[in-house]
Amino acid sequence: MGSRWWRALITLVGLALLLGAAGIANSSSPARVRTAARPHRDQPAADGLTQRLEAVAVSFMQQMQDGDYAAQWGELAPQAQAMWPSATQRSQMLAAKFSGAAGITSYTLGGPQPAPAWVDPEDPGVSVAGGYQVPVLVHFANPSALAPAGVAAMYQLLRLVLLPRPGAAPQVVGEGPASLDAPVIQPGHQSQAAAAVPILMYHVVAPFPIASQWNSGYAYRLEYGLTVTPRQFAAQIRFLAANGAHAISLTRLADFLLYGLALPPKPVVITFDDGRESPYLNAVPVLTQVGYTATFFVPSGLVGKFVTVRGGRNPQHYLTWSQVTQLAKGGFWVEDHTLHDNVALWGLKAAEVARLAGRTAAQLEQHTGRAVQFIAYSGLWPYPTASGVGLAQRALFGELAGLGYVGGAVDSRIDSDAQSTAAIWQLARVRMNPNEPASALAPWLQ
How far apart are CA 385 and CA 73, in angstroms? Predict the structure, then answer.
């Protein structure tokens, strides 16, 4: 089975949890919206606060259904406004995204509940506590026509996060379906865009391996070649920050490539392949300190594993499911790296691609509560540059789109920062090697 079935199951379970005990507001047509039903007496919010939260949630979603994105701007908290290049850019992007088959015909709101601290998905250093979350279900004009496959179901588990204010209406900090980090919908008619955006590819962030702990010179050299020490990594991140680089997610890059949302100055994407634990321990604190998000490509079949060979040699520690969940909650992104990151997908039958990729994405989504729409291909790209592509790769792109993905990241022999709409399935990257000085990043920031 493809990812559609798994995502539908996750959605049904999530809906029962989110809406089972809550009062619901429902818009059944563009002309009318029923007032939200009052929550049960055991709801944590006081009645007066509940009414104010519901009123803002209904207003915000009705404006979205009506396409009145400019009116929404005044309801956003400063932290939400800061995520966008401008109010005009926001309106233009949302108008491009939610049109045609993706037009919003109605929505359903759950009752307000106390929310965990909201963390900016593009800046883990920004968080806001004391908010209330309102579950949102969005209904589209023609959900079966949307791409990628299953994306309509991804809009069934989103949340608004509202911040109460003494003596004033609550503000929206988590925009739910209107967020620039909401699931990507492929536009029906997309323009072509291109930009130089380096996507840095890290693997292990730890002290260099000890040769005696590896069972062969080849295995040791392979591990060494994947390693950047914590000191080297910190120096590289400090260099990026000091030179005005802005870290973004792959979804934020897609917002530019597909909808034309302007990129920040000197954008850079930071990625970690293979699902190792060391970046969680040694890279995340550094990134959080400077306010840089990053993307973790995780092979779901290796989560929670400590892999060794005979005699306890070749030690490899992988992320736990708890750590994966914490990454998603803490302003970082979790995307797919296939089941065990040991089989190249191109040339495989569709059923095998679904087993190695589609189901793994659904499993990651179940643990993170967020859409998984990008994949890092296993193995070295079969062409010297990311722009090289053959029939087997093109066939794979179509199969992955049918499983709910919108793009893929490449590990090629020649580094590049050239990204474009036409090559969203061949996102070029820059491999970060051991012992590279931080200044080696300077050419990528021009």
Answer: 42
